[in-house]
Design brief:
Number of helices: 14
Bound molecules: zinc ion
Radius of gyration: 22 Å
Number of strands: 5
Number of domains: 3
Structural class: mainly alpha
Helix content: 40-55%
Length: about 270
């Protein structure tokens, strides 16, 4: 089938522009600054593949929290920005950015269809990249983070005690100590739930969904959680996916209490 679109919308990062040297490097350096840990490019891809992380400052903040060092969003963002933009004396990581698509090709496309951009970048970040490039002017429209911004980040987990908050962010990003995650990093031979499947008989995979909805070990706590969620959102257990639950600020207080009263996201009871 041959298609002739009238409008072609591009994402910028990873599609038109290689941002490993700029945004991704800034994530790595910011995390190193606050925690002393060196995370990898592969880990960044894992985090980005989860929903809710278009915002690199939010991602970096949550990642640092998941490593047990809750640092306020504003502070993380300030450090990130310094690394990304650089200072008077030192060029920032922004200067390492590379275009992935030749301008001649974009130009050819622009004669056949209108080109537009849709990006998680701020307008300022986008303008900087476009202005230094001959591709500037080829795009009719750009929708940026500034156009879709949704106010402040979720304050509830950010203010919760450190241990619970880090489990919250780990679960949200899919890095919590669940059976499925531990198996994926070759830490366990299987992904069976060790809370309800003590003898390893049923072979129930310990997913987030299992822990929040079905695991018989946490039935009472689940009942309380979903009752509060329904009251808050008028949407019952069956209609929620756990990923959406963890991304919905209205549910954060109930989710945090659920974590406080269970060992969900822990490999074993404390002690
Ligand atoms: Zn279970």
């Amino acid at each position: 089938m041959k298609i002739a679109p009238k409008l072609v919308i591009f994402d910028v990062d990873g599609v038109l522009v290689d941002v490993r040297g700029s945004f991704h490097r800034s994530i790595i350096e910011t995390i190193h600054f606050f925690t002393g840990r060196r995370v990898t490019y592969a880990e960044i891809h894992q985090w980005k593949n989860r929903s809710g992380y278009n915002d690199d400052w939010r991602l970096t903040t949550d990642w640092i929290s998941s490593l047990g060092k809750p640092i306020p969003y504003a502070q993380v963002k300030a450090r990130f920005q310094k690394l990304y933009w650089g200072t008077k004396d030192q060029p920032g990581n922004v200067s390492r950015e590379k275009w992935l698509v030749a301008h001649s090709r974009l130009e050819r496309w622009s004669r056949r269809a209108d080109l537009a951009l849709f990006t998680g970048r701020t307008r300022h970040e986008l303008r900087h990249t476009l202005e230094r490039s001959p591709a500037n002017g080829l795009f009719r429209r750009a929708v940026t983070l500034d156009d879709v911004k949704k106010g402040k980040p979720d304050q509830t987990p950010a203010r919760a005690e450190k241990r619970t908050a880090s489990r919250f962010y780990q679960l949200k990003s899919g890095h919590a100590l669940t059976g499925v995650y531990l198996k994926s990093i070759d830490n366990r031979p299987d992904d069976y739930c060790w809370w309800c499947d003590l003898e390893n008989i049923s072979g129930t995979p310990q997913t987030r969904d299992h822990l929040f909805k079905h695991c018989s070990r946490w039935k009472d706590q689940q009942a309380q959680l979903w009752e509060r969620v329904k009251k808050e959102t008028r949407k019952g257990k069956q209609r929620w996916r756990v990923g959406d639950l963890l991304a919905d600020e209205r549910c954060s207080p109930a989710v945090l209490d659920f974590l406080r009263t269970t060992y969900v996201g822990r490999a074993a009871p404390p002690g």
